[in-house]
Automatic annotation (TrEMBL):
This is Cupin domain-containing protein. CDD domains: cupin_ChrR_1. Residues 8-110, 120-214 form the ChrR-like cupin domain. Pfam families: Cupin_7. InterPro entries: ChrR-like_cupin_dom, RmlC-like_jellyroll, RmlC_Cupin_sf. Gene3D superfamilies: Jelly Rolls. The lineage of its organism: Bacteria, Pseudomonadati, Pseudomonadota, Gammaproteobacteria, Alteromonadales.
Length: 221
């Protein structure tokens, strides 16, 4: 197990992590949280070398992907940097990358009733006005779970707040900050149920945010 105590706050600067081999040649990963070696609840940054591929595999409780760099592909299409994908429980595919890519992958974390297929090119999706100077791009919601991109303009400060059901952030660009630290590009932050903070930025910053999806109490030691 890795980082499966959901009552603890976790911060990982993934740019400082080494790439570890996966079962597929030319596919590398940086684990963020993991229930078991090759199954169960898993979140990772994954890199496909140019020309690499992964064998056809199922997603018992879904797969969520955000393409960070390059072009990720499977038998259903090509997905450029900025693509957000959701493959529902019971789906399967055979992914590959002709030119190479880096992606965020979250496995086996769907509600079994969340069956929507989602494919969004965020580079071609308009931003909506959020609170203050923030801009928001909703990506998915199901019951109390919400996923979105949030763009922070230079110098923006948000009010102190708490996260019912927790909050998970991946910094896509710029540098995110709060009273607990500074988080550069590709830092992953997981904050537990009812945690709070006072976020702000000094430079334009874009974050991928998921809220309301973590357990209310610890489920694993």
């Amino acid at each position: 197990m890795l980082n499966m105590n959901f009552s603890e706050r976790v911060v990982i600067d993934t740019q400082q992590q080494p790439w570890l081999p996966s079962p597929a040649q030319g596919v590398w990963r940086k684990p963020l949280e993991r229930e078991a070696k090759e199954s169960g609840h898993t979140s990772s940054i994954v890199k496909y070398d140019a020309g690499s591929q992964f064998a056809t595999h199922p997603h018992p409780l879904g797969e969520e992907i955000f393409v960070l760099e390059g072009v990720f592909s499977d038998e259903n299409g090509d997905y450029h940097a900025g693509s957000y994908l959701r493959h529902p429980p019971g789906s399967q595919h055979a992914p590959f990358s002709q030119e190479g890519c880096v992606i965020l992958v979250k496995l086996n974390q769907f509600n079994p009733r969340d069956l929507d297929v989602v494919k969004i090119n965020t580079q071609q999706t308009p931003w909506l006005q959020g609170i203050g100077g923030l801009q928001v791009m909703p990506l998915h919601e199901f019951e109390h779970e919400h996923t979105a991109l949030v763009k922070w303009p230079k110098g923006e400060t948000f009010q102190p707040h708490r996260h019912f059901g927790g909050e998970e952030i991946l910094v896509l660009s710029g540098k995110f900050q709060d009273e607990q630290g500074e988080y550069p590009r590709h830092t992953w932050i997981r904050s537990p149920h009812m945690s709070g903070h006072f976020p702000f930025v000094e430079e334009e910053t874009i974050i991928l945010v998921k809220t309301g999806h973590l357990p209310i109490s610890t489920i694993q030691p």
